[in-house]
């Protein structure tokens, strides 16, 4: 069900993307939906964004002709940097030219770990309250 909602919301957004990146963009959205079916989806900050408990989990967009994954956990990006090659990594994003050059299993691992860390963090916070 969430995948249909995501597709409906991003239909116009995807039309504006360069044609050679549309399928990669849709594949990444599908992967994010599969990993976080419980997340809320919206377009914020100019990109499709998945949230849990009203906080950003991750997002995907196209910037300067590259796919860009927004990952608010810089430590995970650093830890997986070797596996994420040839992507370029910044403090909260990774950029790459197309999905074909990436290992999709590593991207799935990254997204899963982001979600797992988020859940653990929220559990610790609730235990402290």
Secondary structure layout plus pairing:
Elements: H1 2-15, H2 19-35, E1 40-44, E2 47-52, E3 55-63, E4 66-70, H3 74-79, E5 88-89, E6 93-96, H4 104-128
Antiparallel strand pairs: 1-2, 2-3, 3-4, 4-6, 5-6
Strand content: 15-25%
Tally of discrete structural domains: 1
Helical stretch count? Answer: 4
At CATH level 2, the architecture is Alpha-Beta Complex
Give the class from helix and strand content and strand pairing: alpha+beta
Residues in helices, as a percent range: 40-55%
**Uncertain spans:** none
Mean pLDDT: 90
Could you give the order of strands across the largest sheet? 1-2-3-4-6-5
- Helices and strands, in N-to-C order? HHEEEEHEEH
Main sheet record: 6 strands, antiparallel
* Count of beta strands: 6
Radius of gyration from the alpha-carbon trace, in angstroms = 14 Å
CATH topology: Aspartate Aminotransferase, domain 1
CATH class: Alpha Beta
Provide structural commentary.
The chain has helices at 2-15, 19-35, 74-79, 104-128; strands at residues 40-44, 47-52, 55-63, 66-70, 88-89, 93-96. It has one domain: Aspartate Aminotransferase, domain 1 (Alpha-Beta Complex). It is built from 4 helices and 6 strands, in the order ααββββαββα. It has 129 residues and is of the alpha+beta class. The mean pLDDT is 90. A 6-stranded antiparallel sheet has the order 1-2-3-4-6-5.
